[in-house]
Specification:
- The protein is mainly β.
- The chain has 1 helix and 5 strands, in the order βββββα.
- The strands form 2 sheets. Strands 1-4-5 form a 3-stranded antiparallel sheet.
- It is globular and about 30 Å long.
Length: 69
């Protein structure tokens, strides 16, 4: 099981709640400057496993999906 975390964003799509499965290309949130942030950006984490899980470098998953970074 993979978990994703999105931080410093302005807004998460209202239809999304914890546990919602998202599809490739679906809008999840918009870049923002909330919390302790030095400027507009989106902090995105992928974790694998239970509860907080182990962090995974998103680049590895993006490359598997054929995305150029």
């Amino acid at each position: 099981i993979y978990y994703t975390h999105y931080m410093h964003n302005v807004m998460i799509e209202e239809s999304l709640t914890q546990g919602t499965e998202v599809k490739k290309g679906q809008t999840i949130c918009y870049v923002g400057n909330t919390g302790r942030s030095a400027g507009p950006h989106l902090h995105w984490e992928i974790r694998k496993g239970r509860v907080k899980g182990t962090r995974i470098d998103p680049k590895d998953i993006l490359k598997k999906e054929g995305l150029i970074i």
